[in-house]
Design brief:
The chain is of the alpha+beta class. The chain has helices spanning about 10-15, 25-35, 80-95, 125-160, 165-170, 195-200, 205-225, 245-275, 310-320, 320-325, 330-335; strands at about 40-50, 60-65, 70-75, 100, 105, 115-120, 180-190, 225-230, 235-240, 280-295, 300-305, 330, 340-350, 355-360. It has 2 domains: about 10-160; about 175-360, 2-Layer Sandwich (Alpha-Beta Plaits). Strands 7, 8, 9, 10, 11, 12, 13 and 14 form an 8-stranded mixed β-sheet that branches. Helix 1 (about 10-15) runs antiparallel to helix 2, helix 1 packs parallel to helix 4 (about 125-160) and helix 4 (about 125-160) packs across helix 5.
Length: about 375
């Protein structure tokens, strides 16, 4: 006769299911729920992991047993593991419950550095309940390591490829293929006189200028719901997709992002003037249309690239900013969709574009 010992549901979950979850939030919610089902008097739980991100240093998920809800706290500076644990410990203490100190167990032996899991309980634990929590911390190390690795991969891909391309790579699209057609408000912008600047300025200072420029233009794009697709030298190609919001909303958001970028560059130029540095001028163009976004390249070296008449037009339109003496130009297609007041500048031929383009500028 074979006796089968039934594991607590929390440990069974960690062995059989946890590795397939979507992320740390789902992990903490499911594990806390299982522990409550096993009879543990939990008030809440906290999970902290290091975040491989250019800005965010660590992320902490905080789970309440009474509501089942999770909130997230982010850390933006370097911190030692003990300081990371304090984020969750302080929050758990605020629940008015007893913190189970020994279960702020670092899972660094099997997971990423800085992973900390902790709980708070509403009454003292029995010996068997304490054993279960200790075993939970031990069994959690392996799935947490997998979740941390997935999070690292996703963060790295988004950092270097952007959100849209990262999602495609994570979905396994690693072959040359047509890709997706995107209807969007397109934005193309680049710095004026960058070639001369790069010839006359030490490379480290050139990089600092590019970083400052990209912070302002890309930051403004993201603030208004857009997405940067490409950094091209000193240029930026961004989109404000049409779908979840209509064309007018997308175009208005694109215009507002340009206004925000100009304000940011004005502030930067004042700081540069205080150091006897020349101002940084830029030009920007906006258009509405469809573009093809997909894998292009050799069989074993691919890049996500935007192609199509709309991309060609917005980049050529930006080239008119200097001859027309305008920092921002809009196509007729864009002007037909936006609700913002505009100034017509007539029709102009664009290099490589067969049909003349009606050109507009924002009213200052």
């Amino acid at each position: 006769m074979i006796l089968v010992m039934q594991l607590p549901s929390a440990l069974s979950f960690l062995i059989d299911e946890a590795i397939g979850l979507s992320g740390a939030e789902a992990f903490l919610t499911a594990l806390g729920t299982k522990l409550v089902a096993d009879g543990l008097p939990l008030a809440g739980g906290a999970l902290t992991q290091a975040a491989p991100h250019p800005i965010i240093a660590r992320r902490t998920w905080l789970w309440r047993a009474d509501t089942g809800r999770v909130v997230e706290a982010m850390g933006f500076g370097p911190a030692m593991p003990a300081e990371q644990a304090n984020v969750g410990r302080d929050w758990l203490a605020g629940l008015g419950a007893t913190i189970v100190e020994e279960n702020f167990v670092s899972a660094t032996a099997a997971a990423s550095d800085g992973t900390v899991l902790g709980w708070a309980v509403t009454r003292p634990l029995s010996a068997s309940e304490s054993v279960l929590l200790r075993e939970t911390a031990r069994f959690a190390a392996a799935p947490l390591a997998v979740l941390a690795a997935r999070s690292t991969l996703a963060a790295l891909l988004e950092t270097y490829l952007g959100r849209r391309s990262a999602a495609q790579v994570l979905a396994g699209r690693l072959r040359r293929e047509p890709g997706e057609t995107i209807r969007a408000a397109l934005l193309y912008a680049d710095l004026r006189g960058f070639t001369a600047l790069s010839e006359e300025t030490p490379p480290q200072e050139v990089v600092a200028v590019l970083d400052a420029w990209f912070d302002r233009i890309a930051g403004a794009v993201h603030a208004f719901g857009g997405e940067v697709l490409k950094f091209i030298g000193d240029g930026v190609l961004a989109i404000f997709p049409i779908g979840e919001r209509d064309a007018a909303a997308a175009c208005d958001a694109a215009l507002r992002s340009i206004a925000a970028a100009r304000a940011g560059m004005d502030h930067l130029d004042r700081a540069r003037a205080a150091e006897d540095l020349a101002p940084l001028q830029f030009g920007a163009a906006l258009h509405v249309g469809e573009m093809l976004w997909g894998n292009i390249g050799t069989a074993d070296r691919l890049d996500f690239t935007a192609i199509g008449p709309a991309v060609n037009l917005v980049s050529r339109l930006e080239g008119l900013c200097r001859p027309l003496g305008r920092p921002v130009l809009l196509s007729g297609a864009f002007a037909a969709e936006t609700t913002q007041p505009l100034m017509p500048l007539g029709e102009h031929r664009l290099r490589g574009i067969a049909v003349p383009c009606a050109v507009f500028a924002p009213r200052e």
